[in-house]
Amino acid sequence: MAIISSGGTAAPGPAGPRRTASPRPGSVDPGGVCAGSLVNPVARPDEEPVHREDGLRPRRLADYIGQSELKQVLRIAVEATRSREEALDHVLLYGPPGLGKTTMALVLAEELGVRCRITSAPALERPRDIVGLLVNLQPREVLFIDEIHRLNRVAEEILYPAMEDFRLDLTVGKGTTARTRSLALAPFTLVGATTRAGSLSSPLRDRFGLIQRLEFYGQGDLEAIVQRAAGLLHLALQPCAAAEVARRCRGTPRIANRLLRRVRDVAAVGGHGRIDAALVDEALALHRVDGRGLDASDRRLLSLMVEAYGGGPVGLETLAAGLGEDPATLEAVVEPFLLQLGFLQRTPRGRIVTPAGRAHLDGPAAVAA
């Protein structure tokens, strides 16, 4: 996959750092995907393949594991769009982090046979940032905006006519000499990704033709993802080891790949040719990840509630003070997985550790904090 950089930054290459000027048509940057980059799904004959261990993302819908309903909806939309030779309707993907929203945007571009320009909402601070992206889009290209709920109001206002009528409304001049000019844009597809769909304004959300949620992955899909990643990383992984990694990854492929890399490190240092469940348990215990996927932060929270407050109820601010953590971090990072497992409950009086949470702390699956 060729990557055409639109920035003017220094990018490291095989022979050390090299300078890149402003992008020219046809310029190729074999580095990683970054904000405002173009991804060309069709490799040029004169390009060398880029071998990267982090290239675990699937490139086609057929290779994308899990999310069967989402794939069915998008496959129909892509086939209908290609038959009409039109731009795909704008797509909004939402759900917890690490489930494959960015990957799905790249897969859509690959299936459509077009390039994908990738950026994030915090990078679009000034109007000229998003205007520059829009005017340089080619017909039917994909523009992917990550964390789209963080777009500022000016950027949203610019996007409204661009999404609806493929038109850019610009104001030229100041004061009494100000005039409004409309600039036609090439038909394009905006793919927005967010972890907080409720934070999007209604006018922006309603302009997406396809709004789809990514769900947590089941054990079977996660095992297939781990086995696929192990093949790409050239690891000899037993099925029981893949199941063990899948059981501890919180239903998230990104975490599964991260844990697999840590297991690979231990296997490489220990000289293990084949990875079994015992080696996975040893490697992840070293990183304090237990049999249910809880890490040290999760267990510290549960232990504090049980030992200091009798299991609750206890308030968020009290827990944050006791752990030396920010309350927002506890609420957004630590608590969701514990709530999902049923180890923690939120009540009007405060947080409570459930009997399942107590049993996990006392059981053999727990790892010493």
- As a percent range, the share of strand residues is 15-25%
For the largest beta sheet, what order do the strands appear in spatially? 1-4-6-7-10-5-11
Rg computed from alpha carbons, rounded to a whole number of angstroms:
24 Å
What is the element string, with H for helices and E for strands?
Answer: EEEEHEHEHEHEEEHEHHHHHHHEEH
Describe the overall structure:
There is one protein chain. Helix content is 41%, strand content 15%. The chain has 13 helices and 13 strands. It has helices at residues 68-84, 101-112, 127-135, 153-165, 202-205, 219-232, 239-247, 253-270, 277-286, 296-309, 316-323, 327-341, 355-362; strands spanning 2-4, 11-13, 16-18, 37-40, 91-94, 116-120, 142-146, 167-172, 179-184, 189-194, 210-213, 344-347, 350-353. The strands form four sheets. It has a seven-stranded mixed beta sheet with strand order 1-4-6-7-10-5-11, covered by helices on one side. A two-stranded antiparallel ribbon has the order 2-3. Helix 3 runs parallel beside helix 4 (153-165), helix 6 packs across helix 7 (239-247) and helix 8 (253-270) crosses helix 9. The model is unreliable at 1-54 and 365-369 (pLDDT under 50).
